[in-house]
Write a structure and sequence with these properties.
- The structure holds 2 protein chains of 2 kinds.
- Chain A is of the alpha/beta class.
- Chain A has a single domain, classed as Aldehyde Dehydrogenase, Chain A, domain 1, CATH 3.40.605.
- Chain A is built from 10 helices and 10 strands.
- In chain A, α1 packs across α8, α2 runs antiparallel to α4 and α8 packs parallel to α9.
- Chain A starts with 26 loop residues before the first strand and ends with a strand.
- Chain B folds into 2 domains: 264 residues, Aldehyde Dehydrogenase, Chain A, domain 1; 180 residues, Aldehyde Dehydrogenase, Chain A, domain 2, CATH 3.40.309.
- Chain B contains 15 helices and 18 strands.
- In chain B, strands 13-14-15-12-11-16-17 form a 7-stranded mixed sheet, with helices on both faces. A 6-stranded mixed sheet of chain B has the order 8-7-6-9-10-18, with helices on both faces. A 3-stranded mixed sheet of chain B has the order 1-5-4, with helices on one face.
- The radius of gyration of chain B is 22 Å and the shape is globular.
- Chain B is of the alpha/beta class.
- Classes of the chains: A alpha/beta, B alpha/beta.
- The interface between A and B is large, with 40 and 45 residues.
- β10 of chain A pairs parallel with β17 of chain B, so a sheet runs across the interface.
């Protein structure tokens, strides 16, 4: 068998459930931690980013309107699919991050478990964060959390899979859709994750993944009027403030998460809360 | 129309003083900014001279707030903080008539609103949040959520006392100290609230109130020792503040403008809906960020509803804010009146049909007669821009889907209304309208237990309820 030439994968973007190359025709070489060539990744452009936002917006009514039970099952299905590809991800994470196989294994396991954790949250968020408001008058008033809309996520640069899952799962758990700029130098696990997402009953466009230069793509997302929120986790330090300034143009919700976040720790609700709106509904009571 | 004899409240009840000073570190002190004269918008007479803060005074106030935070307020048990905040609630209730008259004098709003809405709701906000001070570990933000530090707060002129309460009460309950800048045209009730805070014997520096213009607000939010910024006002200024805070670690919440859709279906109880529409747009002269300024009526009942609406609006009494029979008071400033007039002219220019109540207006002061535009299209400025005055734009729709599409066709998302007798349709609409508050078969209801705040360009963060605590906690 050692004579066999393996079939190398072409790594592409993931937009609207499809796997296009960058419309710009550009690609960039991805290497392992020692500098050995792994693959060429698509170098996403401004146009790709706008296409991804369009796809995310189009997917929003369906995904936010799906039942929480349904979203929970889809997220759990992602964990199932990821589990089935566990060995592949261990190899890719090991190559991308330069960690020993055992460490890579624990990172992949944690990423799988994170999907399960967030899958369980979908139908509990409203009970934990919502309320019946005891107003001083003859009204029934209740408040429910609702998804903010399209969230642009700048994924962590270091943690290529666990970090990525940790920032994407909370966005979609509550019904948002996402445009994700992957780790610039470690994008391959993310692209393989998109293959998992595509086979997990996740509707096309709910998660869109762009590989390329974070500093090139991020400003277009930060200023895009159809993006409602921005996660700065993987933003280069030098452009963080600029991105926030751009985001202010349409009053985006900005999560100023730091790149130093430790994704091996058990998460809390803060990333779910960051992309929720509280809606309060009133109705009079009477006969 | 019934004739009513005038029934004015006495302005003496307001205990107006010729001079008001800013409140820093527990003392009323002369600010070193240019003093301002605050005007009664119903008469254009000067009510009082108010000393304002300079940039140096902002720094003094922030330093006082920091000292109070470090030395007393952040170390005090929540149960003790609670008692101070309860005291404030009680003192507001005790001085409610004085505050109501003062508010109507300085702001121009009808006394029946300041008396029945602004002042009691302000007291309720302090009472509600006082109870949270020693129960924060039950609020769902972890076992021991911490305050942020010094909060810099900038509030608008439409609900001067109530907005101060919305800002100060949760900040104090969560353990923060406060520097608050009231609006330039309405500083008085906040400074009487400062007296109340002094009477409540709050430790010096826990609350500081510094009148001034927009530049003082900008200085406050930019101050490096401010940890939290809360702003209520226009979307335009909100964006400027969000830009100013880019790259800092300051926590920000914004409560900005709106262009709420108030949707009336053909099965709605029309007389009840008319009352709600009137309350939605003419409450507080329409100076309400969540005003129901876009009326969407199902086509089949549009003519009937408009006729009923005009008849009802014709009975609104516009005039002396201190008269207990007044429905619509004075526009808060000449500047705002000019803005309303300009937008109304644009509505006429763009081809909408204007109807204005023939009610008599006072000879002096800033007044605008209630106005309803019909034949409004979505592209017109009066359908897109916040007028912040007693001007209603009426559009029509045929199907529920069209109503949703039109209601959501705005960069804002603060509030919305729906009128129908069909329960399932109410819930369907409430789910689809992208707004932070949805009033169904009612409008403009506020309560400290009910979170309030916007989607999209109406801002972020909530005020009120458990949810509202997040804005003042380091979580």
């Amino acid at each position: 068998m050692s004579d066999r030439i393996s079939v190398a994968k072409t790594y592409k973007l993931y937009i609207g459930g499809a796997f296009p190359r960058s419309e710009s025709g550009r690609s960039y070489p991805v290497t392992d931690h020692k500098g050995a060539f792994l693959a060429n990744a698509a170098q996403g452009s401004r146009k790709d980013a706008r296409d991804a936002v369009g796809a995310a917006r189009k997917a929003f009514p369906g995904w936010s309107g799906a039942t929480a039970y349904n979203r929970g099952q889809v997220l759990y299905r992602v964990a199932e699919m990821l589990e089935g590809r566990r060995e592949q991800f261990i190899a890719e994470v090991s190559a991308a991050e330069g960690v020993p196989a055992k460490k890579a294994q624990s990172l992949v396991d944690a990423a799988i478990d994170r999907w399960v954790w967030y899958a369980g949250w979908t139908d509990k968020i409203a009970s934990v964060l919502g309320a019946a408001n005891p107003v001083a008058g003859p009204y029934f008033s209740f408040s429910t959390p609702e998804p903010t809309g399209v969230v642009a996520v700048l994924a962590p640069q270091q943690s290529s899979l666990l970090g990525l899952v940790s920032v994407v799962a909370p966005v979609i758990a509550s019904g948002n859709t996402a445009v994700v700029v992957t780790s610039q130098d470690r994008p391959l696990p993310a692209i393989t994750l998109s293959e998992v997402l595509a086979t997990s009953d996740l509707p096309g466009g709910v998660v869109n993944l762009l590989t390329g230069r974070t500093a090139e793509i991020a400003p277009w997302l930060a200023s895009h009027a159809d993006v409602n929120a921005l996660d700065l986790t993987g933003a280069p330090e030098s452009i963080r403030a600029d991105l926030e300034r751009s985001a202010a143009g349409t009053v985006k919700r900005v999560l100023r998460a730091r790149p130093s976040e430790d994704f091996t720790r058990e998460p809390d609700l803060s990333r779910i809360r960051a992309y929720l709106e509280t809606k309060t509904v009133w109705h009079p009571m009477g006969v | 129309m019934w004739e009513y004899a005038p029934a004015p409240e006495s302005r003496d009840i307001a205990n107006l003083k010729p001079n008001y000073r800013m409140f820093v570190d527990g003392q009323f002190v002369e600010g070193t900014g240019e003093p301002l004269k605050t005007v009664n918008p119903a008469t254009e007479e000067v009510l009082a001279e108010v000393s304002t803060a300079s940039k140096e005074d902002v720094d003094k106030a922030v330093k006082a707030a920091r000292r109070a935070y470090d030395r007393t307020w952040s170390k005090m048990p929540g149960s003790e903080r609670a008692k101070y905040i309860y005291r404030i609630a009680r003192l507001i209730q005790e001085r409610s008539r004085e505050l109501a008259v003062l508010e109507s004098l300085d702001n121009g709003k009808p006394i029946k609103e300041s008396r029945d809405v602004d002042v009691p709701t302000a007291a309720a906000h302090f009472f509600y949040h006082a109870g949270w001070a020693d129960k924060l570990s039950y609020a769902g933000y972890g076992p021991d959520p911490k305050p942020l530090g010094v909060a810099g707060q900038v509030i608008p002129w439409n609900f001067p006392l109530l907005m101060a309460a919305w800002k100060i009460a949760p900040a104090l309950a969560c353990g923060n100290t406060v520097v608050l800048k009231p609006a330039e045209t309405t500083p008085l009730s906040a400074l009487v609230l400062a007296e109340i805070i002094q009477q409540a014997d709050l430790p010096p520096g826990v609350v500081n109130i510094i009148p001034g213009a927009g530049d003082i607000g900008a200085t406050l939010v930019e101050h490096p020792d401010v940890n939290k910024v809360a702003f209520t006002g226009s979307t335009e200024v909100g964006k400027i503040i969000q830009r100013q805070l880019a790259g800092t670690s300051k926590k920000l919440t914004l409560e900005l403008g709106g262009k709420a859709a108030n949707v009336v279906f053909d099965d709605a109880p029309l007389d009840q809906a008319v009352e709600g529409i009137v309350n939605g747009i003419f409450f507080n002269q329409g100076h309400v960020c969540c005003a129901g300024s876009r009326l969407l009526v199902q086509e089949s009942v549009a003519d009937e509803l408009l006729e009923k609406l005009r008849v009802r609006v014709s009975t609104l009494r516009v005039g002396d804010p201190l008269d207990k029979n007044t429905d619509v008071g004075a526009i808060n400033s000449r500047e705002q009146l000019t803005k309303i007039q300009e937008l109304v002219e644009s509505g006429e220019g763009e081809g909408a049909s204007r109807w204005t109540s023939a009610c008599p207006l006072p000879d002096k002061g800033f007044f605008f007669a209630p106005t309803v535009f019909s034949n409004v299209s979505q592209a017109m400025r009066i359908a897109r821009e916040e007028i912040f005055g007693p001007v209603l734009s009426v559009l029509t729709f045929r199907t529920p889907d069209e109503a949703v599409a039109k209601a959501n066709n705005t960069p804002y998302g603060l509030s919305a209304g729906v009128w129908t007798e069909k329960g399932s349709r109410i819930l369907w609409m409430a789910q689809r309208m992208r707004a932070g508050v949805v009033w169904s078969n009612t409008f403009n209801r506020f309560d400290p237990t009910a979170p309030f705040g916007g989607y999209q360009e109406s801002g972020f963060g909530r005020e009120g309820g458990r949810t509202g605590l997040e804005a003042y906690l380091d979580v």
